[in-house]
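Margin note from the TA: students keep mixing up input and output lines. Inputs are the sequences; the output is the structure of the whole complex. Example:
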Amino acid sequence: MAIATQGTASNYLQRAPSPSGLADVVDLILDKGLVIDAYVRVAVIGIELITIDARIVIASVDTYLRFAEAVNRLDLAQTEAAGLKELQNGGSENKVRGAVEGAKEAFSGGNRSKEDAKSK
Amino acid sequence: MAQRSDRAAAMAGGVYVYGICRRRERAAPPSEGIGGADVDFLPHRDLAAIVTDVAGGRIRATRRDLIRHSNVLAAIFEGGQVLPLRFGTVYPDGAAVVDGLLEARYEELDDLLDALRGKVELNVKAFYEEEAVLAEVVAGDPRIARLREATIGKPAAATHALRLDLGQAVAQALDARRAADADAIIRRLHPLAESIVVDDQEVENLVVKAALLVERDVLDAVDGAMDDIAREQAGRINFKYVGPLPPHSFVALDLREPA
């Protein structure tokens, strides 16, 4: 069994045998796992201080302005290279999405709301 | 409710439960459980609950305890399958764990352990390299390219409406691209997995976040597939790939009594 992925892709593929940061641990054990009754849930002290690894996307004027600024900062030389790359990446197929959604409905206990995600 | 629960726990103490494993597969747990206390097993029939006695001390769930919960499950998982409980589960005492959980829910727990035998969870997260994907968006949409030309280097106040149009068009293009890229990644992993759970939480630059349930003997194949995908996407998508983990995302059995 390979524990670490070696080779040329390693710069783009971070491989870890176990959760490497608190955010990953929180992801696993606060939102997932068996939920049972007849128990007492312990409140986690200071959970709001835990840094989740990325910002939640909120479609808003601020987001739009940030995107506008970001594309205006782009170097045009890069843009052309990316255009070529795009030709190699085809469109989407809905078939697999359907299968995945099915699996999700079967296994997930329900969608986490954005409120929950933000409150962490 | 959380407050009431917390106070009850603080007064009474109890038995903290990490998860459930087969009695014969009990692996050596780490020396430190919740609150730094010992980790023990409460066996019943062919099951065992992995527990820490928290009676007599105030339960203070800290960041270290989150890590400890995860470490205990990882250690037990070395010896066999484990059903992880969600963090923070405390029973009044050992008898309540045996009667209220291991005996009362025996059939469900037994079935779940059988169904998950030999299977492990892998977590995959893919994030865009922002500059690269924005460059693709500009190159792939003439309207975005025009709006960019119309606003670049111009005073922000004078081009506010155009900037909003530009940003909104970029956001829409990113969404479409994200859906296509997420599908492509999942499509590659799908044949290797028993089940896949895709998290639909929208996070900036996140392409896809998924948990895979796979047989242990296909781990090498998944490693190979991830390596291939990451190499193909190098420069535009970065991957974070964690596992093998206990099947946290695949024990969706909700054992609460129906309301």
